[in-house]
Amino acid sequence: MNIKKELEKINDTSKHFQFNDIDVDPLSIKAIMINEVVPADPYQDFYGQYDADYLKTTIPLFQKAGYNVSSIKDILDLGVYITNAVKIPKTEYTIPREVIEANLLFLEKEIALFPNVRVIMLMGDVSKKAFNMITKKITKKNVIPAMSTYKLRDSEFYFNDVRIIPSYIMTGANILIEKSKFQMASEDIQTMMKIIY
Questions:
Q1: InterPro entries given for it (predicted)?
Q2: Within 13 A of 31's CA, how many CA atoms are on the CB side?
Q3: pLDDT at 77
């Protein structure tokens, strides 16, 4: 199944969005990691070129968690699919709520493509907001409370029997600079992997 082709079926506005142009066996995916936003250059995204900027921080996170990966294919082979909540590059420092809302239909459909998912990791505040917006339509409440991620780390959250793990943004220079967040995100990956294996 090609993710991009599946998401482009939704509506005519999809041509304005960047989708993962990758073939994936939907049954093999046991976990989804949702990053915040696509990069301005699609080649720097997770499924872009082999040395993409987004992989320069993601691969070390998995390695720190104890997994011998060197490519996005290795991560997919672990049963982990990575995507972005917002599928258009950001134009401001923060991402406005209406931009997140404009992307929800695509993210919701993308998550639904994988029937065997047992864990969803929310990598950063934008992905937490987006996921809460999706689930609030069904449950009428936030799955993840609006508080600092470090305060949530000892709690367990579920949506439809899927474990939801709030974590830290996994791309950009900040993750490399903030060693404590890098450490906590890698620990969260360890938790995710223990659940799916």
A1: Uracil-DNA_glycosylase-like_sf
A2: 24
A3: 98
Whether the Cβ atoms of residue 14 and residue 106 lie closer than 8 Å to each other: yes
**What pLDDT sits at residue 174?**
60
CATH code, 3-196: 3.40.470.10
The structure tokens listed for 78 are 């672990």
Residues 186, 66: Cα–Cα separation, whole Å: 9
Contact call for residues 67 and 193 (beta carbons, < 8 A): yes
Residues 6+ apart with CB under 8 A from 91: none
> 143-159 pLDDT, tens per residue?
999 888 888 888 999 99
- List the strands of the sheet with 119-123, edge to edge: 80-86, 31-37, 119-123, 162-167, 157-159
> Strands 157-159, 162-167: parallel, antiparallel or unpaired by DSSP?
antiparallel
Give pLDDT tens digits for 176-189: 668 888 999 999 99
Domain locations along the chain: 3-196
Cβ atoms of 33 and 165 within 8 Å: the answer is no
- Provide the token pair at 79: 């049963």
